[in-house]
Amino acid sequence: MISPQSAHRAEAVALPALNLLGHRGQHVLVLGSGTAQLAWLILRMPFVQRLVIVDGDEKVLNATRLYFGRFAAAFDDERTQLVIDDPLQWLRHSTGRYDAIFLAWWDQPWRKPGPQTRVPRTREFFLALRGMLTPHGILVQEIGSMANMRRVLSMITLHRTVFAATWPLMFADLEGLDLEDDQPSRFDRNPCFLALSSADAGLHPLAVNWTLWHDIALEDLHIYHPMLHKAMFVLPAELQRQLDAPTPHRPSLATAGASMPKNNEDNGLAAVQVATFSLEAKDCDTLSLNNAAHLRSLLSGMAELAGLTPLSNLTHSFEPQGVTALLLVSESHLSVHTWPEWQYAALDVVSCKSLSNTILMHLEATVRSMLHCSTVMGHLTLRALHATKLGQGRHATPSEQLRHMEL
Fold it and tell me: What CATH superfamily is the domain 272-385?
């Protein structure tokens, strides 16, 4: 049903992510359509150039056109591509890249299990979605409510195993739950939670260009505004501890499109900072994967793209097939390991020099071009060490990483 409650949900799902992206949010994917209110809201952002909607329930789409014409107009917008297909089947063959992906394909545990009522909760599913994101891209998913905090924690943990940055958001409708609805309160109770995730480790939830937002001047919104944007990321203290989601503070560094802060012992930032860009290449050309000289050339080209200084290289060819190649650079190293029998390669670019989103995008494109592969997925990890901040010999928690980001 179209109601203020559904409007609250659509605004909470779409607007925080689109505001974080700003002009970078040009290509958007929505899996599932519902009543089209989410798609209609997305298309009100003038920087959105393409919207792909994938929904396998043609009856819902027809009902939306019949009863909710105002929102169904989004289906016929010139920027919209409407795909009637099972989302899982479509994902297996899609090669597109998107700045934002919205899962409007919600779990409905009160209904009989099926492709339209359950969302996969596997790492492989979210790895596939991450592979469709641009380096700065954002994925948003509703992950549950206070009625099932175990599920919320499980989904946040799953997102954090796949994405470099994951922030939980909390929202509630202003009318409360209709207890006469056929959706029992044991499944959905205010507040509800979203996961906002990105492969960009430098994502900060408050890095929004509010000048752009005010220029767009959306009217007739129900709940979303700049003050609420921050409030959605501020969970009650008990939930902050449970989900390891500290209150974000306004970033003092320009985080839009940036990555690592600079070394600065005086202001307390980490003394050692390392960026690791790990790539997986699938369905590659077998001959390319078994050609040691070609792989050396690949690493040299990647080092040049990243502005790294080559020192020496080492290559070993295995029998009957497979190659490991290593390029030492002044900033650290690059490596590639290939399995021709599986048409698969794993690559790493490790550098104490920052890697911008543009560089990451070019590195992925180079791997895809030189190895002739259908799928390349990259994941950026930032590591930092400061004896007085993080301690010796352990990883920083998300809370500690946030404190470094805010200094």
Answer: S-adenosylmethionine decarboxylase (3.60.90.10)
Identify the active-site residue in 222, 278, 294, 337.
337
Which residues touch 405 (CB under 8 Å, ≥6 apart)? 202, 204, 251, 253, 255, 261
Per annotation, catalytic residue among 300, 317, 332, 356: 332
- Is 259 a known active-site residue? no
Would residue 352 show up in a list of annotated catalytic residues for this protein?
Answer: yes
Catalytic residue among 352, 356, 362, 372: 352
pLDDT digits 0-9 by tens, 210-259 = 888 988 988 888 889 888 999 999 999 989 988 888 888 765 434 443 33
pLDDT at 204: 87
CATH 3.60.90.10 boundaries in the chain? 272-385
Please count the CA atoms within 13 angstroms of the CA of 133 that sit on its side-chain side. 27
What local confidence, expressed as pLDDT, does residue 73 receive?
87
Of 117, 124, 118, 114, give the one whose Cα is nearest residue 92.
Answer: 124
| The CATH homologous superfamily of the domain defined by 4-243 | Vaccinia Virus protein VP39 (3.40.50.150)
Average pLDDT over residues 61-78: 83
